[in-house]
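--- STAGE predict ---
source: upstream dedup step, 1 unique chain passed
mode: sequence only
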Amino acid sequence: MEINIIWQQCLSLLKDQLGEQVYNTWIAGLKVQFENDKFQVIASNRLVHDFIKNKYWDKINQVLEVLSHGVASELISAKNTSKSTITGESNHIEAAPKENIKPSPTRTRTKNNAIDKEILESLQSATKLNNNYTFDTLVKGNSNQLAYAIGLHVTQQPGNRNHNPLFVYGGVGLGKTHLMQAIGNTIYKNNPKAKIRYLHANDYIQDVVKASMRQGFDELKKYYNSLDLLLMDDIQFIAGDKTKTQEEFFYTFNTLLDKGKQVIMTCDTYPKNINNLNERLISRFASGLTVEIQPPELEMRVAIIKCKAEQSKINLDDDVAFYIAQNIKSNVRELEGALNKVLYQAQFSGKGISLHVAKEALMDILAIESRNVSIDEIQKAICDFYKIRISDLLSAKRTQIIARPRQIAMTLSKELTQHSLPTIGNAFGGRDHTTVLHAQKTVNSLRKTDEKFDREYNLLIQMLNN
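--- STAGE serialize ---
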């Protein structure tokens, strides 16, 4: 455990809580050292010491104990210090074993030894977790049942190599972020002293860029390597030309796994399908537990709409909820958007919430949805166009006359529907997602080199969209 890191985290929290003026006047000038198995916070003189002791010490002491996992601390005056041990020269300590943690004698505890609510909220805000994303608010159905169960299991044994790293993938708006943050919030609730950080991959890229500009990679590594739980959203964004980002993340990722710390990532596709990602990372991502979240089925969509309505304290009739769910099939975000549109239509029209109002509100959305095609429709169109049978399209036959239309149908299914690669592969005779990926590459390559083929492909798109 690094004193510098702990002290800087403590100062950041105190600045947020006390305000910039108080922080600059009384807190910013404090130093810290580690002696006799405890933090010694050093005031510049006796006047500052006495003022902080009476006014702010309980809060400082409490934050330090939480951040250091129970190491005791005391406030002393500068004349009692030894300069050789002040922060920066002797700065590595081991956290006290939990069973030996004792509250500081200057601490004023509540009867149940609870952490001060304000400090707890400040510490949780540092995790960047959304308090509303919990398992209680996450609707469970067939499409996310396995991911939900695995998520709960991870909260009981974070860092277990059987589910570390945990890689959750699926289309946009299916609840990947909600599930990941629900895991984080539960682990935090079970252990408020756990060092947790949720961030989007773009935030990590920015951290690497800033570290590069100020040559601060050591600080970056120390921070991320000190975490107990790292939650990274949309990991596919670190792919591409960001070589340094991938390199830094590879070492951070390995360090956390080697230390038995839990890493959870979300992505829009299976690890091996992420383009321009370092092979080392692909291999490491796939080494843990990978789980897919699929688009919600009808019953789950109804449950999601009812749940969202209840959260907004809206009494929504079942027929209205069913109508929305029956017509909005793609993802949770679009369901929420459709529900909000119905609620606003009811409010501003003054008619109240009814099936008729729902139909009025969603008229334009449903006009667009009606133009979306299904995999079945794509398969039928391909068979009609190339004069082959559905049974041949779904069979194991690999002759050119069957294989090429099948590849086109798979590619169109990926382009024109919301379905994931595994779902598309399964719809074509139980094929693997890698077969779909290969079909996409083959078709895209042919379109660039064969004008006749490209015209046929565009014609098929027009036929399916009309």
